[in-house]
Recover the amino acids of this structure.
């Protein structure tokens, strides 16, 4: 039996890097893509990729060919009140978090369909896409859009045995969340330590989620164990949404 191949987009990030490790441990051949490949774990074959450029995504798809699964973990965030919104920042968030996911889906679903062997897509949404958060309208809207796209693609692709699911993490201990804490602190939200403590207490379990806890769910969704699961949004949030 041939080794299965997975593309992890956003593989240099906290959750993306953990996904590289989780899939490698499960015996997959891992391909990692990001704007900067420096921090992608060594288990992956690496490619530089700007997901906001549809042409570059299509070029990568033509170079690496069909994969059995795609994890879309690319994402950026900014906190800003709507009255002071910089729409160049808004557009960049949409370009990476939502448009990029569509570019990747278009490029990598086509060879899955052509091969007729099925496949799996997992999009990293967020608890903020399930329940909007103050000061994060662009981020919440982009992640809610991913949920809608997940459900639409699941309905469209099930006849090709391609499953599409999303994972909605809560507050995950990643460099990106730490930068959010610093930004909130700079904008008068208290000390960075105080903001971080509020993040940790936000869920019912009153703790942060680890990147590894999110990654194992992503890997499981691509396994035969979840062969009947599609169009599902899985919170990995330590009770954040309760």
């Amino acid at each position: 039996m041939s080794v299965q191949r997975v593309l992890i987009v956003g593989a240099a990030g906290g959750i993306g890097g953990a996904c590289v490790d989780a899939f490698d441990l499960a015996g997959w051949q891992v391909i990692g893509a990001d704007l900067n490949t420096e921090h992608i774990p060594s288990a992956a074959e690496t490619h530089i990729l700007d997901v906001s450029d549809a042409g570059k995504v299509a070029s990568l798809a033509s170079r690496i060919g069909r994969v059995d699964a795609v994890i879309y973990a690319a994402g950026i965030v900014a906190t800003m009140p709507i009255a002071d919104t910089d729409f160049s920042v808004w557009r960049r968030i949409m370009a990476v978090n939502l448009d990029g996911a569509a570019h990747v889906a278009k490029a990598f679903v086509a060879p899955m369909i052509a091969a007729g062997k099925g496949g799996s897509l997992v999009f990293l949404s967020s608890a903020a896409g399930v329940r909007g958060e103050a000061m994060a309208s662009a981020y919440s809207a982009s992640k809610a859009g991913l949920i809608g796209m997940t459900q639409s693609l699941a309905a469209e692709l099930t006849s090709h045995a391609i499953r599409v699911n999303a994972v909605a993490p809560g507050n995950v201990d990643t460099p990106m969340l730490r930068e959010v804490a610093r930004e909130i602190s700079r904008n008068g939200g208290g000390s960075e330590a105080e903001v971080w403590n509020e993040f940790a207490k936000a869920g019912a379990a009153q703790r942060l989620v680890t990147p590894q806890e999110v990654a194992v769910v992503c890997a499981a969704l691509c396994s035969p164990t979840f062969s009947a699961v599609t169009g599902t949004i899985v919170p990995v949030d330590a009770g954040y949404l309760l």
